[in-house]
Amino acid sequence: MNTNRLSMTLAAALNEQMTKEAHASQIYLSYASWADLQGFEGIANFLFRHAEEERNHMMKILKYILDRGAEVKVTAIPAPHPNPLSINNCFEKIFEHEVENTKAVYSLVKMSFEEDDWSTWNFMQWFVKEQIEEEALAMSLLDKIKIAGGEKVSNEALYTLDRDLKDAPDSVESPQEATAEKP
Ligand code: OFO
Predict the structure, then answer these.
(1) 17 lines ligand 1 (CB under 6 A)
(2) Residue range 30-59, pLDDT digits in tens
(3) How many Cβ atoms sit within 10 Å of the Cβ of residue 61?
(4) Separation of 98 CA from ligand 1 center, angstroms?
(5) Ligand 1 proximity of 117 Cβ (cutoff 6 Å)
(6) 21: Cβ below 6 Å to ligand 1?
(7) Domain that holds residue 70
(8) Which of 56, 58, 103, 145 has the fewest CB neighbours in a 10 Å radius?
(9) Which pLDDT score is estimated for 181?
(10) Half-sphere exposure of 145 (CA within 13 A, CB side)
């Protein structure tokens, strides 16, 4: 008896999205490590936490594929992007990445709509909503650095930004509290 309720196309697309989320996690990990090495502990902490959040997104998709009776294909993750050139550049790259990921999410929504796969369509709505938050978060980082001077930001302003990101409670639940059900 065949218990798989995902089409081959959607299973492949979901597996691909799962890898994209793992890739996102690696990107945040590498940017966080870069920021830490530059002495920006607060920014690094923020990015490390976000890396965990992306991993939870990966797990959420993995679990959904299994719940639908399809095969999970864990593949190699592409290398993260090269290190940013500055904090301003780091925040720009994060924003661009999130917008790219939103496009990938939309494409899955479209595919599930076209296939009348309402379970997947419904499942993907969580990601649509999440991407609104992720883009807004990335944009708020960009706004902060823009106000502080963009590429010309002073060390003093960077110090304050770093301290604020360290102290500010962000909306990301700690990895210990998050689950695949509730990333
Ligand atoms: Fe998984 O949300 Fe960012 O990329």
Answers:
(1) no
(2) 999 999 999 999 999 999 999 999 999 999
(3) 24
(4) 6
(5) no
(6) yes
(7) 8-171
(8) 103
(9) 59
(10) 22
Residue 182 lies in a domain: no
CA of 150 to the centre of ligand 1 (A): 24
* DSSP state, residue 85: S
pLDDT value at residue 5: 95
- The domain total for the chain is 1
What is the per-residue pLDDT across 111-136, written as a single tens digit (0 to 9) for each?
Answer: 999 999 999 999 999 999 999 999 99
Is 96 domain-assigned?
A: yes
Q: Residue 112 and residue 6: Cα distance in Å, rounded? A: 10
Q: What's the CATH number where 68 sits?
A: 1.20.1260.10
Amino acid at 165: L
Judge whether 178 lies within some domain: no
Q: Could you tell me if 88 and 153 are in contact, meaning their C-beta atoms sit under 8 angstroms apart?
A: yes
Whether residue 178 is predicted with pLDDT greater than 60 in this model: the reply is no
The protein residue whose alpha carbon is closest to atom 4 in ligand 1 is 98
Ligand 1 center from residue 131 Cα (angstroms): 7
Determine, yes or no, domain membership for 158.
Answer: yes
* Residue 162, amino acid: D
